[in-house]
Amino acid sequence: MYKLVTKRVLSDVSTLFEVEAPLVARKAKPGQFIILRIDEKGERIPLTIADSDPERGTITIIFQEVGLTTKCLAKKEAGEYIADFVGPLGKPMEFPEHPGRIIAVGGGVGIAPIYPKVKGFYKAGMDVFSIIGARTKDFLILEDEMRLVSKELHVCTDDGSYGRHGFVSDLLQNFLADGEPIAEIIAVGPLPMMRAIVNQTRPYGVKTVVSLNPIMVDGTGMCGACRVTVAGKTKFTCVDGPVFDGHQVDFDELVARSRMYQAEEKQALGHCRCGCGGEH
Q: What is the DSSP annotation of 98-143?
């Protein structure tokens, strides 16, 4: 059993938990993830390691309520326990090979997994220019944390309720057009956002990496549920990723696979017994 040490509600649909998991905290690196189960009958879901504290023995996870498990998890309180917490899984983030600016682009709940990567670059003494955005101000998370580890932080919202009115791609275009060298762009967010970003950067020839979060079951490369086509070859996100060269990812296939179980997800919510809003 793993204790939920602290809880912080970031928005109406986003929650942060600090989880007591000393063995995971001791080994965790930016870019890796964990898989958890709330109880013995629960499904396994992957969540990015948003932060780690080896001294306290804790891992920070941030999630958005989109399905049965995340809605039930959000009902938990500090001091309660969850059944399983496995990790760290996946390959750690790699640092750029060439000098220049690093542009980090996070959209919605994707700000959570991009934060540890930016923090890692910051600790390595690199200049990171961060762009974060959300549908509205209420969905914006980790602004203060991102500001502390970024040379510059640019904020936007789709509806103009906070920061610049527009999309993260609008702000990114300013960096692409100014002529200054860019070592790497890293984009994390909803699949449509990441697909738009890689299409935007492809003509400029700037390396653009994305962090993927597809359907996943065991997290060890055995089940094949998280397979994705990269450069025409089948890769498993759990062991080959989760970070890939965005220009080589088949996003059309990835989007189609992400929608495969929408009907089952709705059915599961309808049978929810945790008080998250489904029928009992």
A: S-SEEEEEEEGGGHHHHHHHHHHHHHTT--EEEEEEESSGGG---H
Omega prior to 190 cis, within 30 of 0: no
pTM here is 0.85
Is 278 inside any structural domain? no
> What CATH number does residue 73 fall under?
2.40.30.10
Residue 280 is predicted with a pLDDT of 30
DSSP conformational letter for 249:
B
Provide the 3-class DSSP secondary structure of residue 57.
Answer: coil
Decide: 51 and 118 in contact? Cβ < 8 Å: no
Burial class of residue 134 in the structure, from the number of CB atoms within 10 Å of its CB (0-12 exposed, 13-18 middle, 19+ buried): buried
β-bridge mates for residue 130, sequence order: 104, 153
Asked if residue 187 and residue 125 are part of one domain, the reply reads: yes
Neighbours of 96 (CB within 10 A): 17
Sign of CA dihedral 255, 257, 261, 265: negative
What does the pLDDT read at residue 11?
A: 84
Closest CA to 47 of 68, 17, 72, 27: 17
Instruction: Name the stretches of the chain with pLDDT < 70.
Output: 98-99, 260-280
